[in-house]
Every structure is written in structure tokens, then in C-alpha cells.
Design brief:
The complex is a heterodimer. By secondary structure, chain A is mainly β. Chain A contains no helices and 11 strands. The chains are: A mainly beta, B mainly beta.
């Protein structure tokens, strides 16, 4: 099993550009999450999904959209990137115990 | 709302014991979990406490006091590879955990 994978690993965007981050898991997990991590801020939840076709807002959803058309994939979109969205983005999934999250390797995004 | 407090940085020497504290304020508390994250890496799950007391997993132990809204992670026989950030996270039964800001552990030779 590959676990949780994220694509791409690194990306540099110019202000106003758009992009989609892909998260894929092969563990048949129901719950999936997108977090951003900034220095000194810990992990902040952007959006999450409790199953295929469902999404919900987390703590910091503004400027992001998500979709979960297939159970194994969770996409995070930035429609018009801003420098404030420079961060490391982590995807995670849960096997059934909410406290044991499996994280992907992260995507390091810089918006100039 | 929910809030978690943990020290921003802790330093210790190789072979020593170190304790990383976490205090929380939340409603609907189910349990407290701990994650480790090395620089440039992803967080990985370490332990979970739902009941009061100590849970031991090798060199790592985690403690919870629900009445005090307090927990800690105890690392024994510290090794250089234990240098990392450690996050506590509160579970509320909603499948939406809340993470603390993390404690950077620096282990010196």
C-alpha cells in the first residue's frame, strides 16, 4: 500500500494563478482532511470530507475549494492564489479512529 | 471553542527524560492524542489517551488527567533522532480533531 500520497510535492505560483492539489489514499478510508501548516501555527483544518461526494468547511476555508468525487481522492483547489496561501499543505485520512490520522508527505506551496 | 496550550520549545540532553505538557479547553472531550513530526516530514501518530492514566509504548508514554484538562508526553532515554516537533490534539467525537501549535524538542549530545 502506498498510504496517503500528495501531488505535487513542491509548487511556486504567481499571485492570481490557480492550481489543484491532489490527495490520494489506497486504504479505503472514509474520512479525509486538508490542513495547512505555518510556522508556529500548528495544523489548521481547511476542509474535510466524511465520505464520497461530501465536503465541509474547517477552521480556515476562505480562498480554497475541495471536491471528493471518488472515495480515494480528495482535491484542494486554489482559484486565485495569494501570498498568504504560502504554506505547507498536508492531506490526511482516518481509518475509523478519529484520533489516528494518516498524513501524506505534504505539498510545499509558495505564492509570489 | 477549543484551545490547546503546549510549550513552544523544550531542550534536553541525550539519554535524559523529558516531559511535554498539554493543557486544553474544549467541550465534548473524547481523548488526547500525540503526533511526532520531523523537519520536512509529515506528522505521525504516537499515542492516544481516552481514560485517565499512563499509556506506555516503548520509550514513549502519554498521560491524561481529564479532571485537570491536562496531559503530557514522556520521552525516556532520549536519542538524537527524537529531535522533532510534537503536537497534542483533542478528539471530540466529531472526527474533527483540534491540534496544538506544537513543541519543538531539541536533543543535545
Amino acid at each position: 500500500n502506498a498510504g496517503v500520497t500528495q501531488t505535487p510535492k513542491f509548487r511556486v505560483l504567481k499571485t492570481g494563478q490557480s492550481m489543484t492539489l491532489l490527495c490520494a489514499q489506497d486504504m479505503n478510508h472514509e474520512y479525509m482532511y486538508w490542513y495547512r501548516q505555518d510556522p508556529g501555527m500548528g495544523l489548521r483544518l481547511i476542509h474535510y470530507s466524511v465520505g464520497e461526494g461530501t465536503t465541509a468547511k474547517g477552521e480556515v476555508p476562505d480562498g480554497y475549494n475541495v471536491s471528493r468525487l471518488k472515495k480515494q481522492n480528495f482535491l484542494l483547489g486554489l482559484e486565485s492564489a495569494a501570498p498568504s496561501q504560502t504554506s505547507v499543505y498536508f492531506c490526511a485520512s482516518v481509518r475509523g479512529k478519529e484520533y489516528e490520522q494518516y498524513f501524506g508527505p505534504g505539498t510545499r506551496l509558495t505564492v509570489t | 471553542g477549543q484551545s490547546l496550550e503546549q510549550p513552544s520549545e523544550v531542550t534536553a540532553v541525550e539519554g535524559a527524560i523529558v516531559q511535554i505538557n498539554c493543557t486544553y479547553q474544549t467541550s465534548g472531550f473524547y481523548g488526547l492524542s500525540w503526533y511526532q513530526q520531523h523537519d520536512g516530514g509529515a506528522p505521525t501518530f504516537l499515542s492516544y489517551n481516552a481514560l485517565d492514566g499512563l499509556e506506555e509504548t516503548g520509550r514513549f508514554s502519554s498521560f491524561l488527567s481529564r479532571s485537570d484538562s491536562y496531559g503530557y508526553l514522556l520521552l525516556q532515554e532520549l536519542q538524537m533522532k527524537d529531535s522533532a516537533s510534537y503536537f497534542c490534539a483533542v478528539s471530540r467525537g466529531s472526527y474533527i480533531p483540534t491540534f496544538g501549535r506544537g513543541t519543538s524538542l531539541i536533543v543535545h549530545p
